[in-house]
């Protein structure tokens, strides 16, 4: 009996996905570039299962049912292209290659087109949930060649996480790089969520002078509210974890955050598409700022920086902080969905935003209770341009506004940096302001560069240039893109 699917790459994610597939009755053929890794896997975690090994790509191909389904769980970039180049001569028309890594979506666009010419189907699939998710049920976001989906669907939906209604957190996203784009946005929102939580933690620790046990209790309670989510849950675990000397381990971790690039890609794409992804972009910059550790230490001493204590009723401040975190979190998701909407329109993906929310409802790092409310919002209005306009989320934003402003203002007053939480509030203020000062900005552009402007008392699309000084001339440069 031949294998149902082959998996290349036996790092922890690859191994756990294979074990997950085996648990659901699928025969998996496992391959790694180093034969020792295959042996270690077969004699270790895969011992006693139906998983079989392949010590060459030819052996892998020979052991698979047709159409062959081969999933790459390797480092994104050139490694993926290298394996594709080696696999293609061994495959038949109609066979399927799947990239399950964190790939930048233009690479997936390119691979889908190139392999289509050779008669090979390609799927670029985001997989979220980390090691535990891969083993017991991740969120899976496949896109690429639609012809391949019926062959992969039973496997992916079987191994994916399930909602409380037993719905699989996996569905077809769209053509070409749609799956990897949605995974990229997922990771961008993840950056934003994590940064928001760290800002709340610093406000409690440095502003309110709370102990780690007190903060852990707060996050446990918050997880019983609309903030219920994986990241809030693990934060309470982290704050309660003690080192061997009984002190909180988190305070012994160097305050420099790493990143693998998906948050940066999200910000770059937002800039390319003209979407104000302010919160997520600030969260990326916050990680960049954290990496300047030595400079920050010197600057603190140079400026004599000290945070002031936040005075007042601690419980009142904790509730205000909860509301500010919740409202900011909504903006994080809202901006992410705005970016997906623009990408869908530009690329003709026809994304189903309710389905995206469903795919994120379980298994993934940003899984949270209110994703069900996001799905409901897009079920009511599939063309919803701003998540905050939905009645449920609009109500939360309006009810949280006073507390949100109070926290943002106090953070600036006492010197606690909260870049993502304050940028989220500033975004909403800008988004809900009918007339912004960009009229003056456009006048400046016309003054020094003759870039023209439109007038409120003339039809849109009609451009004007003013000789502001009497010396600039009447010839315009170019019309601007609004």
TrEMBL record:
GO terms for molecular function: NADP binding; phosphogluconate dehydrogenase (decarboxylating) activity. It catalyses: 6-phospho-D-gluconate + NADP(+) = D-ribulose 5-phosphate + CO2 + NADPH. Pathway: Carbohydrate degradation; pentose phosphate pathway; D-ribulose 5-phosphate from D-glucose 6-phosphate (oxidative stage): step 3/3. The active site is at residues 183, 190. The keyword Nucleotide-binding does not apply. NADP(+) binds at residues 9-14, 32-34, 74-76, 102. PROSITE patterns: 6PGD (PS00461). Substrate binds at residues 102, 128-130, 186-187, 191, 260, 287, 445, 451. It is an enzyme of class 1 (oxidoreductase). Its EC number is 1.1.1.44. It holds the Pfam family 6PGD. InterPro entries: 6-PGluconate_DH-like_C_sf, 6PGD_dom2, 6PGDH_C, 6PGDH_Gnd/GntZ, 6PGDH_NADP-bd, 6PGdom_BS, NAD(P)-bd_dom_sf, Pgluconate_DH. Residues 179-469 form the 6-phosphogluconate dehydrogenase C-terminal domain. Catalyzes the oxidative decarboxylation of 6-phosphogluconate to ribulose 5-phosphate and CO(2), with concomitant reduction of NADP to NADPH. Homodimer. PANTHER family: 6-PHOSPHOGLUCONATE DEHYDROGENASE. This is 6-phosphogluconate dehydrogenase, decarboxylating. It comes from Aliivibrio fischeri (Vibrio fischeri).
